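hey can u check if this looks right to u? its 83 residues, i copy pasted from the old doc so theres a chance i mangled smth
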Amino acid sequence: PVKPDHLIMAILYLSTFIGGGIAFLIMLFGAFQLITSAGNPDTVKAGHDKIINAVIGLLFIIFSVLLLQIIGQNILGIGGFGP
């Protein structure tokens, strides 16, 4: 994109997808760690913590996009933040 607003939107969309993909991979790694823990309490706790932290990070990403849409489109009237 050549226009600055289109470039910013492309960067925001790309970073959102990358962040969601990383959170998904961390959740998969945590699930794999839970499955292969063989009952070891430390490994089970580490896998559980990875999944919980990835979900919290994913919620941060979702709420930040929602906040950008509310502030950018509804309050300031900047186009391009909506669907």
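The helical segments are 4-35, 41-75.
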